[in-house]
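Handoff note, outgoing to incoming analyst
You'll be picking up this chain. Sequence as last confirmed:
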Amino acid sequence: FSSHLPILLFPSMSEGDALLDVTVRDHEDMSPTTRSSCFQWVTLHCSVLPLARRRLFAKPGVLVCLCLLLCCVLVSLLFLARPVEPLRRWIVAEPTPSPSSGASASPPTEQPRWRLFSADDTRFVYSYGRVDWTRPFAPAFDWAGVHVSFIATNTTFISSLLVTSNRMDPKVIFAIHMNNERIGVIVVVDDTTVHHSIAEGLDPSKTYVVTLVRLTEPQGGVTHFQGLHMDEGGVLLPPDGRIQPPLHRKIEFLGDSITAGYGILGLIPRQPVADMQDIEMTYGALTAASINAEYHIEAWSGKGLVRNGFSDTTGRMMPQLFRYTLANQEIGWDFSTWIPDAVVVNLGSNDYSRNPSPALFDDGFHAFLSLIRSFYPNTPIFVACGPMERLCNRECCHTIEQVVQDERKENHHVYFVNLQGLMSPKDPGHPSASVHHVMAQNLTSALNKQ
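Most recent structure output, in case you need it:
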């Protein structure tokens, strides 16, 4: 601590001189050895070489005062937890130029002013997916496709407050839509980074309709939306038809990596799953748009009905995940809050990825359809045979079609949709964007027939 004391007490050489000048002018009874030690201390610790011949500590009172001051400084450092530099400025005030001395005083720097709009503000609209409201000030969601929308005005910037948890993939990506145009994305890669810019340099006289859309599946973790920052005078307007035009239908999709859009941007080796996904480009989102419907998409890569990819039978599968508000947490979903007009099931590729069991798959599929009907007794279910024929081969597709036929014999509203034969050898393992377009056309046609 003594090595910092000279810096703390003597911010300038003139102040060091002043303090040494108040020491005794003559101290005849100080021994030469003591005198020499004092000079060495001044030279080493104060770095005041020109003062080496001055005499220090002439009176005992000066030494006592310095000891008391040292104790005060030590207590301040220990209990006030102030860094050395702020503490030095606190004890020894820096000289400030006075306007009367001819030096102009610097004007105080104004801090930027902003306003927080909490996530539970009723002017926010949450749609297109399941949202957990356990913490109203930080609603949570992790299924792809969830929308957060609002209308803002009288501000030059908009910044969102987003936090993620329970992550397996290192990032979550959101699309930013402003006035019906996709203007960019938000990439959430760090749990400690809360503020994410939506737009800057806005015209305060204009109104902006903004929607954030989660593009990536639950592997990226749970998103907690905590609100917005805007200018101090910023205003959120009540929601109207500009946020969400009247939609006539609701449709729910249950699936695996195909439905989640894995690889839709191309397969990138050793890259995060999020870099290969965009839920807005998938057959589910395209189908919903074509029939003027709001969608919910519960899809997770590698998941199956009775076994997950690579013969995993220990992890949670879609019949379990279907019950949850959040895929990463076992929080039950209230099915009465959102009842679809149609449900699309596209599963089987992971069940047949290795050592398939047709009998087990058949039983599991019937059980899953019964589970869906228990929540939506009057909703038709469309069961698709997916396009990845290297996994869901002819046997897989035949089993799915047989399940549908058995269900129809029981007078259940279940329909089969064949989406095979759409991929080419050029497609990188998973359906490309062009394949998703064709899938959406075929599915839309099947929906319109019923």
